[in-house]
Specification:
Blueprint lengths: L1 E3 L5 E4 L4 E4 L5 E9 L2 E11 L2 E6 L6 H8 L5 H12 L3 H10 L4 E3 L6
Antiparallel strand pairs: 1-2, 2-4, 3-4, 4-5, 5-6, 6-7
């Protein structure tokens, strides 16, 4: 799925899903995001209310920016998983936070990608 940003940068949402199990047993699925074919370490896609949102995960937990920059790329998925799990007690809390963020791209249901 390719999403166009208003400033003409394209994001491609990857198919490989990462499911984050939160402390209450609920889960949130994150999808990888690529720009110009390269992984975007700070961006993830989330399906919310039938729409796909590309978000900057540094806005979910500010320390992720520095931690991701310092980590080897192979460690980033685990780093994101454990940081979000520690920061949010439930999927409802995490998705509420995602909902308050301005999405980099917001694709409404029924809009072809």
């Amino acid at each position: 799925m390719t999403l166009n940003r208003p400033d003409h940068h394209e994001f491609t949402v990857g198919a490989q899903r990462s499911e984050i199990m939160l402390r209450d047993g609920s889960a949130v699925t994150l999808l990888p995001v690529f720009q110009h074919g390269e992984p975007c370490p700070y961006h993830r896609a989330v399906k919310l209310n039938g729409a796909v949102r590309v978000i900057d995960i540094r806005h979910l937990v500010r320390q992720l920016g520095d931690d991701i920059a310092a980590a080897p790329s192979r460690d980033v998925p685990g780093l994101v998983f454990f940081t979000l799990r520690a920061a949010f007690p439930s999927a409802v809390c995490l998705l509420d936070r995602v909902n308050t963020l301005g999405a980099l791209v917001h694709l409404e249901p029924g809009v072809p990608a």
